[in-house]
Fold this sequence. Notes:
Layout: H1 2-14, H2 48-58, H3 65-71, H4 83-104, H5 111-121, H6 124-133, H7 136-139, H8 153-163
Helix pairs in contact: 1-4, 3-8, 4-5, 4-8, 6-8
GO molecular function: ribonuclease III activity
Protein name: RNase III domain-containing protein
Keywords: Hydrolase, Signal
Amino acid sequence: MARHFKLAFVVLAAMALLLPTSQARDDSGKASPALAERPVAARRLPSAQEIASLENQLGYKFTDTFTLTQALLHPSFGELNNARLSWLGDAVLGMVVSDRLYHCLPSNATTEDLHERRVAEVSRQACAIRAHKMGLDKLLVVGKGYEGQVPTQAMLAGKLLQLL
């Protein structure tokens, strides 16, 4: 648990979590062109160099690269189920965002203010924007059935949550 908590702080700092995110315009669930500029291709697992590059960007060295690789797989890849990682990442993100907002917002912020801000910061759209800024769309591993499709916000947001 401490490992996930520490990683969440590193990732959130790297994403500049408390800065406003731009609004995506596609209500169908697909990432806007600004988020997903290219269709995904069925691809191999991330190389050691790609993993090292992501670790450099995050400022965090993964001790379990298998879990990191699993986090980058879309369920269409078929090899591993990473839904549990997404569930855990969602919980960690909510906890860390709550803590950061509690300490960073003015003391006169109401619980309603805190709640609304947390909802905005952990939304699918906000997570998808941050995943794209981190380049996770380039590391997304999908099966052949998704080849040529533009990643959806759900796909990008899921990768971020699974990474946490």
